[in-house]
Amino acid sequence: MNLARAGFYSAIGTAARLLAGLVVIKLVAWFAGPEGVGRLGQFMSLMSLLAVLAGGGISAGIVKYVAEYRGDPQRLSRLLAAALSYALCASCLMGLAALVFSRQLAIWILGDASFESLIRILALAQLGIAAVNYVLAVINGFMDVRRLAFIQVIGSVLGIAMAAWLARRFQLYGALLALVLGQLAWLAVALPSWWRSPYFRQSLPRLRFDREMNGRLAAFSLMTISSAVLPPLVNIAVRDHLALRFGWQEVGNWQAVSKVSDAYLLFLTAAINIYYLPKLASISERGALVGELRNAYRHILPAVIVLAALVYVARSWVTRILFSTDFTTAEALYAPQLIGDVVKIASFVLSYVMLAKAMTRLFVVSEIAFGLSYLLLVYLCTAHFGLVGAMYAFAINYVGYLLFNLLVVRHYLGGLRT
C-alpha cells in the first residue's frame, strides 16, 4: 500500500465520518443555538474520554503489533487474544464507573441532572464501543484501507439517519443520544466485514491472558490514554473557564471554530494514522525512516496549508452553512486557529515516531506537559486578548510541541543504523 492509495480510501471514510458529525452539529445549532453547541462539545469530550478508556486505550498497540506480526500467525493469535481480554476487562470497569457516577457526570459535563439517563446509556454502550475499536484496529494493522473505508461509510450513513430521527423527536437530547447509538451501529457493520476478510481466522477472537503481550499493550495504554484522555479533560477545563469568563454563548463560538478545524483536519489525521503508524512501526533503518518522514512532509504539509487557506477565505460561508447566523462573531477567531492547525499537523507527523517506536515514558510526559501548558496559555492569553486568546494559546502551544518533536526525532535517528 502506498500513501496515495491510503489517502484516497482514507478520504472516502473520513468524508463520511465528517458528514455524520456535521449533521449532528447542524441539528444542535438549529435546535439549541450556540449554547447547545457548547454543551455538545462537552458531551463529545466525555464520549471521547470513555471511548478510549473503554478498550483500555490499546488501539494503537493493536495496529503496531498486527503490522509487525501479520507474517507470524502464532504471535498474531497471542496478541489478538490478549488484546480482546484486555479490552473486555477495561470496558467493564469503565462502564461500571460511569454508571455509578452518572448523575455527577451529567451535572459536571452538561450542567443538568436530567441528562443522567444519557450518561447511563453511554456507560452501557462501552462494551460495544470497545469491540468497534478492536475490530477497526485489527483491520488497520493489516493496512486494509478499502475495508476500513467501507465500514466508515456505511456506519456513518446509519449514524446520520439515526441523528435525523432522534433529533427531530427529542431535540438536543436526541442528537446527543444519536452520537452514542451511532457508535453501536458501526459494530453491526464492522463485525461482518472483518469475518469476511481473507485474514480472519476462527481461532483469532479468543480470550487469553498473556503476560508478554499484555505488558506490551499496557505501554500503549499509557501513551494512548495520555494523548486521548488528557485533551478532552483539558478542553472541558477550557470550556468551563471560557464559560465563566465570557458565557456559554462565546463558548459556542469558540467550539464552532474548533469543530471546523477538527472537520477538515480529520482527512489528514486519518491518513496519518492509517498509513504512517503501521508503516513507521515496521521500519528499523535510518534511511528508510527519514525517507518516509520526508515523503509525509512533501504530501501532507502542502495539503494542510491549502486547506487552511481555503477555510479562511470561505470562513463566513462555512460558518453560516454549518451553523447559523447566530455564529457570525466566530469569524474573528479563524486566523490564529488555522495557523495553529498547520503547526499541529507538522508536529503530528513527527510525534508518530514516538508512538510507533513505543517511547512510552517520553510520550506520556510530553502529552501531560503540553496539555497543561495549553491550559495555562489559555488562562494567560484570554486575560490579555479576550476570547481570541484561546486561539493564540492553541497556536503557541503547538509551536512548542513541534520543536520538542524535532529534537526527539533527531536524537532517535542518530541512534539508528544507516
TrEMBL record:
Highest taxon, organism lineage: Bacteria
Subcellular location: Cell membrane
UniProt-listed CDD domains: MATE_like_10
UniProt keyword NADP, yes or no: no
GO cellular component, one term: plasma membrane
Biological process terms in GO annotation: enterobacterial common antigen biosynthetic process
Name this protein carries in UniProt: O-antigen translocase
Organism: Luteibacter rhizovicinus DSM 16549
